[in-house]
Amino acid sequence: MFVSRAHVPESLRPDDYRQWPYSVPAVAEVVERGVEFTHPVTFLVGDNGSGKSTLVEAIAEGFKLDARGGRAARKAGNANPSKTALGEVLRLETTAKGARMLAGPRLKKKGFFLRAETAFSMTENLGGVPGYWEENTAEMSHGEGFLAVFRSMFRAPGFYVMDEPESALSFTACLQLVSLMHELGRSGAQVICATHSPILASTPGADIVEVGEHGLRRTKWDDLALVTHWRRYLDNPSAYLRHITDA
Ligand SMILES: Nc1ncnc2c1ncn2[C@@H]1O[C@H](COP(=O)(O)OP(=O)(O)O)[C@@H](O)[C@H]1O
Ligand SMILES: [Mg+2]
Description:
The chain has helices spanning 25-33, 52-62, 85-89, 96-103, 116-125, 142-153, 171-186, 225-235, 237-244, and strands spanning 3-7, 35-36, 41-46, 91-94, 111-114, 159-163, 190-195, 207-212, 215-219. By secondary structure, the protein is an alpha/beta fold. The protein has one domain (3-221): Rossmann fold, CATH 3.40.50. The structure holds adenosine-5'-diphosphate and magnesium ion. Adenosine-5'-diphosphate binds at residues 20, 24, 46, 48-54, 74-75.
């Protein structure tokens, strides 16, 4: 473990929570109460717009992780364009190991931030670049390239932040990623991963934080709204489809 908690010091809390990102319930909860990381692998699970990316981006920034592959340009109104609004105020509490890594030289820092939006261009552009991966991922399929990237980038015991890494992956490839995450967790790495994949969230031994209108809630895989929806849907698609089609 490298990071044990993320929080916002009282002096940096806003007066007005109506403004983004504080208007997002999960962000408001982290600002008010912080969020603890107690397991080597933590998933933030929630619907689109629940605040997962906002949280993981700020956490990655807090650990000074390289968002290589290009950070998407932020929307206007951000004083420091290299930081997100939440990243400006979020502080990480590290373990002794985490503190040593943060204070050490950049090259000794083992960790990576994988953004869903930029991961694909990374697989195309960074193959063969020293420090990245050997395989020519441009010649692989989208999903194959992702897995090659995951395997070589996430080898050392470091701090890994991921945002919906399942985007390009098939069912089988997701299972392979589960195995990789599990391995990482056991090897002394720490993973914090935003996902809406019920497969990824089932990684054995992982902690699950459900993100939503309620803010944050630690929960079991079985109790995730996402899992309930998938179960019901696969059981009987028409129960959902009749609400959205005229059929
Ligand atoms: N730079 C931004 N400025 C204003 N609102 C934003 C910005 N980025 C995201 N949002 C809004 O914040 C909410 C949470 O977004 P996000 O963290 O991307 O959710 P998720 O990753 O869970 O889908 C959404 O309503 C989104 O539209
Ligand atoms: Mg997102």
